[in-house]
Specification:
Protein name: Protein Wnt
Subcellular location: Secreted, Extracellular space, Extracellular matrix
Function: Ligand for members of the frizzled family of seven transmembrane receptors.
Helix content: 55-70%
InterPro entries: Wnt
Order of helices and strands: HEHHEH
Keywords: Developmental protein, Disulfide bond, Extracellular matrix, Glycoprotein, Lipoprotein, Secreted, Wnt signaling pathway
Number of helices: 4
Length: 123
């Protein structure tokens, strides 16, 4: 019936959400971050600290300096560069987890295997 279909759909969505959230929080061993939204580190959690933040900023700044013809940060303007670096807020503590994208595909696949198991035994 339509009511049974609705209950099954809500149940499937709930199981998919629970599996996806558990994966994102790192509570499941066999899953990883969503690779379709991968970051520079192959979709894995990124460790961020003041050293890596400064390195990333300096790399970005060097690319900007190479690509810009009228750049106020060129040689001879070191005071401005120091002021810019001084005003940047870095994370507190030694490191901070950069996060993980929800791996919805993993949640969907595993919830489907779980929910369809009773139907697959019959065939």
């Amino acid at each position: 019936t339509r009511e049974t279909g609705f209950v099954n759909a809500i149940t499937a969505a709930g199981v998919t959400y629970a599996v996806t959230k558990a994966c994102t929080l790192g509570n499941l061993v066999e899953c990883s971050c969503d690779k379709s939204h991968s970051r520079r580190n192959g979709g894995q959690p990124q460790m961020v600290n003041a050293v890596t933040a400064v390195a990333a900023l300096e790399k970005q700044q060097s690319v900007f300096e190479r690509n810009s013809t009228k750049n106020p940060l060129r040689k001879g303007n070191g005071n401005r560069r120091r002021r810019l670096l001084k005003n940047i807020k870095f994370p507190e503590g030694e490191w901070e987890w950069g996060g993980c994208s929800d791996n919805v595909n993993f949640g969907f696949r595993h919830s489907r295997v779980f929910l369809d198991s009773k139907y697959r035994r019959r065939t």
